[in-house]
Amino acid sequence: MSTYLFQNTYIYDGQMERGLRCDVLVENGVISKIEAPNTIDDGHVSLIDCNGEKLLLPGFVNGHTHAAMSLLRGLGEETPLMSWLKEQIWPVEARLTPEYIYWGTALALLEMASCGVTCFGDMYFEMDQVAQVSLAMGMKCALSRGLIGEDQKRVDENLKLIDDWHGKKGLLSVQLGPHAPYTVPMNAMKKISELALERNVGIHTHFLETEWERQYLRDELHCQPVEYLEKTGLLNTPRTILAHGVWFLPEELPLLKDSNITIVHNPNSNLKLGSGIMPLPEMIDQGISVSLGTDGAASNNRLDIWEEMRHGALIHKGVRHDPTIIKAKQILTMATLNGARGLGFEKTGLIRETWDADLVLIDLDRPHYLGFDVETLPVYIVYAGSSTDVEATMVKGQWVYFNGEFPSVDREEILKQAAQARKALIS
Length: 427
Ligand SMILES: N[C@@H](CCSC[C@H]1O[C@@H](n2cnc3c(=O)[nH]cnc32)[C@H](O)[C@@H]1O)C(=O)O
Ligand SMILES: [Zn+2]
Description:
It contains 13 helices and 16 strands. With 427 residues, it is α/β, with parallel strands linked by helices. The protein folds into two domains: 4-59 and 347-402, Roll (Urease, subunit C, domain 1), CATH 2.30.40; 60-342, Metal-dependent hydrolases (TIM Barrel), CATH 3.20.20. Strands 1, 2, 3, 4, 5, 14, 15 and 16 form an eight-stranded mixed sheet that branches. α2 crosses α13 (411-425), α10 packs across α11 and α11 (328-342) packs across α12. The longest helix is centred in the N-terminal third of the chain and has 17 residues, at 98-114. The relative contact order is 0.18. Bound molecules: ligand SIB and zinc ion. The ligand N[C@@H](CCSC[C@H]1O[C@@H](n2cnc3c(=O)[nH]cnc32)[C@H](O)[C@@H]1O)C(=O)O binds at residues 66, 85, 89, 93, 123-125, 146, 148, 154, 179-180, 206, 209, 269, 295-296, 299. Zn(2+) binds at residues 64, 66, 206, 295. Pfam families: Amidohydro_1 (PF01979).
């Protein structure tokens, strides 16, 4: 495994007061030294001379996605969630083969790696394919098998994923993936929570994405949302990820304080599907852990966390008529540390000695960074930056993206295979 020295770079992570100019040494997949600029010996290392014009951020974490849906981009556009799923997406998904899911996921990984994403939480099916392609590329992935209905076969597949992949190479983790309260009966949800506790793994589910779902909980399941989470044991698992959480009421949030919950904010998917805008400021006030996600490429339509950071800040300022309501630093923590923790990855999401070298190298020598300093770096990143500033992306000390190339995989082959899969699916 190579040793890398980022010489004279800026670094920033969401927990730092301000940016810092320094040398960063990466050895054996971890950040081994952070010292004053131009002080670490550059012998016997691969040198990345940053010359005070680059920034290292922790790798972005896409907290909720369905990677292989990159094959379905553009399908059922501009349709509300339930008819989009039932009439447009699910019939096509029924034709997905393991091979298509492999190439669709690979396609999504090209996009994510080039945007600086190093880790993603994926809920889909044929998850062995997702595990294999993530390992082949060297990306971190939290796998969950989407569970629909009360189906032991799907649950067994999810449990087998734990046996086969959980912890593999420090890149993979596994969660149980009950799809949503409206697709999984309540007693089945409860059993899944019990299994999570028994097997010491997290849960990844959709929750309160639309207003319709809130009404469904009330009218069909006779529960308020937090009561549902309590009754089904979702508050008792080692970790529970709720994708969306758009329709929580502010007064319900204190009940989730100090809980095992991470809510994944998917602002662009929620806007595009017209689902609504989540009460993010109140969630942060209550100390609830919130991360960021893109959801699938068919509802976003990008897999770019920069876009989620920018919109995740701007929409709340806009609807609350208050520019102070959310800070760039908080958004950066959501995009990195909170995502990693929610997905069960340790020592991931900060730039600290002994933490995993999951890093994004950003070129600051661009017109829109003119005038930044260590204090303003976070706001430049969130409000002026974009994924086109990403020069390279590293996971556990290995490049997954470097200057337009993908050192660990064959980009042309992925594009060719994904195009064939797409054609076979949608014709
Ligand atoms: N249908 C699968 C299991 C479901 S995987 C997860 C599912 O979530 C669906 N999905 C994608 N985006 C959303 C969303 O925003 N809300 C709810 N479901 C979604 C996605 O299309 C996929 O079917 C089977 O055969 O067993
Ligand atoms: Zn989703």
